[in-house]
Known about the structure:
Radius of gyration: 15 Å
CATH architecture: Roll
Mean pLDDT: 90
Strand content: 25-35%
Low-confidence stretches: none
CATH superfamily: 2,3-Dihydroxybiphenyl 1,2-Dioxygenase, domain 1
Largest sheet: 4 strands, mixed
Amino acid sequence: MDKALRQQQRVVWFELPVLDLDRACAFYEQLFGAPLQREQMGPEVTIAVFPYDGTGVSGCLQRAPGVVPASTGTKVYLNADCGLDALLARVEAAGGKVALPPVMLPGDMGRFAHMIDTEGNLVGLHEA
Length: 128
């Protein structure tokens, strides 16, 4: 990837704050059907990284002192190209809640939905 293209991709990493890392991992692993990689970052911070092949954007769940989940503020959108409807069908069974059903975007921009995860984070799902 050339430097100019990398500079256009402003988002490079995201962190979703969690209160209970085991519960949050179980939710996202059930939702996406893939394991998260747990890592210890110093004595008080533990993260669980979403599957990542070295290209594009990735991120993690983060459990740390003072880190508080939020239903307002910055919102991250996770890739739902594997099937937005299928993901939404698994949200409640995994312990979350659908906050906004699918919304069509103009043109060929796809569609999105919002969910609230087990930790109280409002998270977007986007399907191209």
